[in-house]
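Let us practice reading a record.
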Amino acid sequence: MDNGYRYLVLGTGVGKAIAYLLATFEDTCCVTITDERFGRALEVSDQLQKLVNKAFIPFEFNVERDMSFLIESHDVVISALPARFNDRLAALALGAGVHFCDLGGVLDVTDRILKIPVPKGKESVSIITDCGLMPGLGMMLSQGLIDHLDRTESVEILVGGIPQRPRPPVFYQRVFSLEGLKHLCYDPAPVLANYEVSTVERFSDHETMTVSELAGYANETGQIEVFVTPGAARTPWTFQKQGLKSFRERTVRHPGFVDFVRNIPPEKFEEAIGPHINIPVNAENPDLVWMRVLANGIRSGVATQVSYTLLDRFDERTGFTAMERTTGFTTAVIARMMVKGETRPGINTSECALTAEQFGLFLSDTRMIFPDLRFNSRVIG
C-alpha cells in the first residue's frame, strides 16, 4: 500500500528480524534495511523477500556520515546497531521530526539519550530507548504487573538466551554481539534494595535454581544459574519513584558459564570466550529464550504474587533465533505503535513509554506473536 508506514531499520543482525515482522503488517508501505556494506543489506533484503511479499529497500548506511536525508524520508527509525551509536541517531531523528527506537543495553547511552533537548515544534515525536528483550520486554511486563497490583513491594526479572544443546566449557552460544555480552559480564549493575538504588558488582546474587520448563535441555531437572546484570537500564530508579522496595534483573545461563568467565580480565574477554561460543545458531544448534517477570504486592487487600512467563525457541521455518525473535519482534511492535500514535510523546525508556491503556494494546499484539506468554496470579497471604 502506497500510503502505509515507512520504516528505516539500521543494522542487519537483529535488524533482520525487526524488518521481517514490520513487513508482515498490512499497514506497512516499505521497509528500508541498511548495513555499512551494501552487499550485506542486499543479501538480507533478498532473504526477507522470500519470506514476505513486501518491498524491502537495501541501503548502505554509515553512521559517521550525515544521513539526515535518509531519516527524513521515513516515519520511524529503528536502530539495531551497537548502543554506542544510539544517542547521535536519536538526536538526528528528533531533529527531523521522525520517531526513533533502539535495542538499548548500555546505561551511559540511555542516560545521554534521556538528556537530548527536544527542539521546539518536535514535542509530538516519540523517542523510546531500550526496546529489545532486556532492556525492553521484561521492563514493560514489569510495569504491567505493577499497574495490575494495588501496591507493589518487589519485582524481579529472570531472563536469558541459552542454547538448547549446550557444550562445555562455556555452555553458551553467540546469540548477540560480543560487545553486548562484555557489557553484561563486566558492567556494575544497579539494583533497588530497601527503597535505595545501589550498584553491585558483576555476578552478584549468583545461585542455581530449577525451572521445570527447561527440563531436558541441559539436564533432566532444568537446573540453571542466575546472577545480577545491568540489563535493566534506568528501571531501578523508575521503580524507586513508584515506591517499590526492591527490584533486580538476573541473567539466566546454563551452570558453568560463571565459573568460566569469572576470572577472565576484561581486556582478554573476546580472545578467551570467542572461540568457545562461535557455534552457529541453526536447526542443529538451536537456542531458546526463557523469561519470568515476578511481582509481589497487594491486590484487593490480599497479598498477591503475579507473573509473566515466556519460553521461545529457534524457528526452523524462518531461521530466526529465539533471541532475534524476542528482541527484534518486541522492538517492531513498539515501532508500529509509535507511528500509530500509541506511545507517549517525548523521550522515554520503554517501561515509561506506555500508558496503562497502551500497555494493553502492546500486550495484545505481543501475545499474537508469542502465544506462550503466560500470566499467573496467586494469593500468598
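A brief commentary: The domain at 137-326+370-379 is CATH 3.30.360.10 (Dihydrodipicolinate Reductase; domain 2).
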